[in-house]
Amino acid sequence: MLYWYYMETDFTLSVVHEDPAFLVVDKQACLPTVPLKEDPPEKITLLSLVSKQYPEVLLACGQNAWEGGVLHRLDTATSGLVVIARTQEAYHSLKHIQKADLFWKEYVALSSLHTDVPRPGFPPYPYGDPVLGGGKEIAIGSLFRRYGENRREVRPVSMDSSKQLLDKTSGTWYITKVCYSGKTESGANQFTCRLSSGFRHQVRVHMAWSGWPLDGDTVYHGKQAPNLALRAVAVRFLHPVTQEQIEIRVQ
């Protein structure tokens, strides 16, 4: 396991795993993963930091050239592992692996606040309480739709929703597997969340839907906290060249 560090303003780049075909990088919270299309070139993102050390990641890209070889994004407030392709061939191979649901991400999430108060735009929650599951993994599944001012939020949509709501979704069913891990020293409830296909805010929304909004997630009515209590701690996927299964973890 290799560690490289590159400091630019307040952000430090940590490369956790280096391979000729890809990098696995530990993103800090509050750092955007990639720029938006309209962002100025000088905007600091995870991609801009990585490209200082590995400029080839800007040449491996898909539909959006400004996102380089980044295979998946984390919300700006979320910290943890991001996989970035270093070659065009690796990018296409890893994208095929993702589409085959063979690319898994694991998160650690904390929630100190339980609530069963219905939230605007959320359908009734049909799954079990992760805490009451007592360590048993619960699969939370839904479609998703954009919601609210400038469509900045996300809402789950169940299959028995009205046609009007169903037509507003992407048509893809997303699943978050949630397992209760017990209480931390601070008294917060800790959860392990796993997924393959991902949608914007997926873990945050599914946890809030289950009655356990994440600490620091004021968008979905979580407890006030300095930071969002969500970290991507592991990735598992097939190597884009050798097809060997790779699993990389951080604390």
TrEMBL record:
Pfam families recorded: PseudoU_synth_2 (PF00849)
Segments traversing the membrane: none
A single GO molecular function term of this UniProt record: RNA binding
PROSITE patterns: PSI_RLU
Source organism: Sphaerochaeta pleomorpha (strain ATCC BAA-1885 / DSM 22778 / Grapes)
Span of the signal peptide: none
Family: Belongs to the pseudouridine synthase RluA family.
Name of the protein: 23S RNA-specific pseudouridylate synthase
Top-level lineage group: Bacteria
Domain Pseudouridine synthase RsuA/RluA-like per the UniProt entry, residue ranges: 23-208
One biological process term in Gene Ontology: enzyme-directed rRNA pseudouridine synthesis
